[in-house]
User: What shape does this take?
Amino acid sequence: MTSGPIFSDAQLKLWMRRVQTEMAKGTPPQQTLDLVKSAMEAQSAGESQISPAIEIAQKSAKKI
Assistant: This one.
């Protein structure tokens, strides 16, 4: 099993709601999975880019 991003319970509930919404709209299961997987990967990538910026800002604030 690979180690991937860790999502909170609230985030996972939102992803499940997205799956249910897509399925209710009639989106095929594989397409629904691909949409949600892409969104999760984009969120993970965004968070990993934000983290270094936050750390830099915190270090700068400590020097002041």
User: Anything to note?
Assistant: DSSP finds two helices and no strands in the chain.
